[in-house]
Amino acid sequence: MTNQKSKAIKFLDTTSYDFSVKSENSPLCQILHLIPYSPNGPTHGGKIRANEISRVLARVDPNVEVISFGDADYKERAIQIDLLAIPRSLIGDLEMLQKDFELSSLEFPNLKMIVFEHPWLWYEVKSLKRKYPNVKIIYSSHNVEYQLKDEILLKYLGQRANSISEAIKSIEIEISNNVDRVIVVSQQDKDWYSQFTRLDPVLAKNGTRQRTSILNRDNRPIGSNALVIGSAHPPNIEGCLKFLSDPDLWLPNDAKIIVVGSLATALSPYWGHLRNRWGATCVEFIPDIDDLGLKELIDDSSVILLPIAYGGGTNLKTAEALVSGRPIVASPQAFRGFEEYLQSPYVNIAETNLDFKLKVTTRLIGKRIPSVDRNTSKLYWDSTLSSIEVAIQELING
Amino acid sequence: MARFWMNTTSSSIWHGTPVGIIRVEKELSLRIKHEPFVVDGSGFKRDELRSTPILAGQINTANKDSFQRNKAHGFLVAARMYPRRARLVKGIGYLISSLYGINSGLDKTLDKSVGQIYLLIKNLYLRFSSSKKRLDIKKYVGTSNYLARTPPVNSPFSDGDIIFTCGLDWDNAILEKISILKKEIDLNLVTVIYDLIPISNPEYIQNTRHVNRLLGHFTLLAQLSTLVLVNTEATAAEFRKLCVQLDLVTPEIRIVPWGVGFDSSLEPKEVPGILPKIKNNGFLLAVGTLEIRKNYQIFVNIIKLAQEKNQAIPHFVFVGTPGWGTHELQIQIENEELLQKSITWLKSATDEQLIWLYQNCDALLSPSFGEGFGLPVAEAQFFGKKTYISDIPVYRELFPDSTFISPNDPAAWLLAITKESHSNLSSRSIPDWNTASKIVAQTIGDFFGTEMK
Asked: What are phi and psi of A208, to 5 degrees?
């Protein structure tokens, strides 16, 4: 039997965190997986990747202990996302870094390995390492964080950005110098981290799950929809506002953009009131949807859009779009790490916002294109994360 | 029998001097026999149009015939695009502009202050309407029986009719209305593309909303048009390229000329104070808004290069309102001593003054990076003047008698304007409006196998 324990901690009177563990004493646990996301709140790319990594760890050790740390107000904040408040939420990551969650007070007598996502729990990991000096540490990166934060913070905070991004960079270098392995999501990230690691970083790109269709929709006469799926992450929000600006003015008749995920909530203040030149709603917002509904939307879409403005890592929604077989219009940033698919059928890359709109328009006014096979079996999580399983086995077996 | 309809919405509601596209629509509508129709995209009702002095005046002089016939057919009242408050503000703007017209014979200070009030209100309106109140056609759809019913009850069109539209159609959502009609009625649509600069060179357009609006417009135009008229092969090529990008079958394209010419009753009028500046050395003229695309920066480079080389050059006269993206250049022109001596910048000029400038200049210079037509070049050639223009496809095609120079090479411009004699042209290649209108009518008539006058 396990006891459910949860803590809610006030920090700096600004943000409260909660986390839960199965038990204060986990004698069977050999692998501890630390995830800096609230178990509540909207799903997003980072969270999906972390959960998939948990599944990989569970294959190695069924008694893996997963601890999710999250901002207790995450869900509420996510639905009130405001671009101007973004710097504050990013600073929240640094607050998490400084927070003492007292993990070292818990007992893991058989602990062999700690895998932690993002750099924000590094000090907790260090305290556990002091307690269990033989434990192996794996850092699972999602980006080169300082580069991503630098872009965002420079945009929103100007001069203050330098000190914050430098602080994040030094943490990332410290982590790389001290952990046993670093997991990276793209070759570019690997190139950066490998400057500081003893062993080559483990490249495990983002992937997707195989979704099963109930109906064959390719022959169904349907309206033309351009689908955008994403979280309320600044590069997604700004990408939409840049590459798809003024949808009321350029979208063809009987066509609409459907925005899915917390991105929908973020974009709603900008596009929620828009009517096209024929007086019809031209943007539809779906903040929450289940897997089956999402699969239907993907199958129904004329084109999937990946308008990502900037940022590092690889985007799992790109993998998802490629696997779907639907036509894609994307910014170059969206295909970072997926370069081998640039020449795939109906993958269109647009560098400027006008070119992006032209390509979207082409898909929306043209004849519906049946889904194509892009030979994407290696984009499934089982394949993309297989290198992690190998690396962990090697570490555990010494 | 198929009837030929012409949309004269833009010139009917235009409140300023009929230039550019408005000029084309007005001149063609006066010369080509047609059934007129107006799509009320301005937010004004028919009676308001007639009772507004400037508008009524324009209709009486430019479109009297069309206006009378419009009454017989009834207007195709199709849009109430602006919300009520914006209409009110626009109404006040129109009222003051009318006042401005009435007072134009009074002293300059009063004219200027009234003009400034008008501009202030116009700018407030634009800011207000673009940021706070977006177009809300839904309101109109709910109240009008035009778009709400199928088939549209007020449409005067029949199967096989030819609809010709050549105005500011993107502003009045003309094609959107026609797209609805075309679902019910087999209409032949003839459209005009003046240029595709917003699509081919969006970097020259200040307002991204305008670029986005035109993308929507050109897409719809390509989908709906039976025949597209352009005035250069260069524009035709740009349009074909756009259709390929959109994976659309390119509609039939015909190249027709636009006309040029001033009202023969206008007398040339010297610009006050200009002669002492010119000092008998003659002057070179540049006409057009001071915006990035027009490349006025090169004149500054030419003048400074001439100073470095100690070369004498003629005086420059610019005629054009201050445009976007050239703020620093404008400050430079108005404040640097060398430029003050070398350039006279007229931010506005009457038609009479412009005629005087064309008649008395040594040559016209147009170093523009991109143009659809280049009206000042055509007008200068109308007056037999030599033209030095940038080496761009549209200019090569339209004005072969010019001297072509790279828009990025100030040294070449300096060499050309100092070495060559500015002898007048013996002939001009751009027709007048009578000839141009006949060619347009014949082109459309030939395409549809019908006689057009």
From this structure: -150, 165
